[in-house]
Amino acid sequence: MSEIYGPEKVACAIADALVFQAIGCEYIANILQQRQYLANPPGALHLTHHQDLLDLEIPAPDLTAYEHKQNKTP
After folding, report:
1. Domain segments of the chain as ranges
2. Is the whole model's pTM more than 0.70, yes or no?
3. How would you write the pLDDT of the chain (74 residues) with one tens digit per residue?
């Protein structure tokens, strides 16, 4: 594990596992994997402004399928 994650990170994970009395390589590997995901910060969130929503152009829906059924009499 130290070849993959580095000796410092493995030592820190072992120390934390000992605090929780989680002894075993599976526990250490899980701690290292979880910390690897937390190390990557999420990207910036893009929020639209209300003015941006007013500038949208939405095409008119195609209602020809409904007009054909409307012309038939039951």
Report:
1. 1-40
2. no
3. 889 889 999 999 999 999 988 888 999 999 999 888 776 677 787 776 776 667 778 899 988 888 766 666 55
Exposed e or buried b per residue across 25-46, where buried means at least 16 C-beta atoms within 10 angstroms of its C-beta: eebbeebbeeeeeeeeeeeeee
User: 5 and 32 in contact (C-beta within 8 Å)?
Assistant: yes
Neighbouring CB atoms inside 10 A of 2's CB total 11
Residues 13 and 31 sit within 8 Å (Cβ to Cβ): yes
Q: Read out DSSP for 11-63?
A: HHHHHHHHHTT--SHHHHHHHHHHHHHHHS---PPP---HHHHHT---PPP--
Amino acid identity, residue 50? H
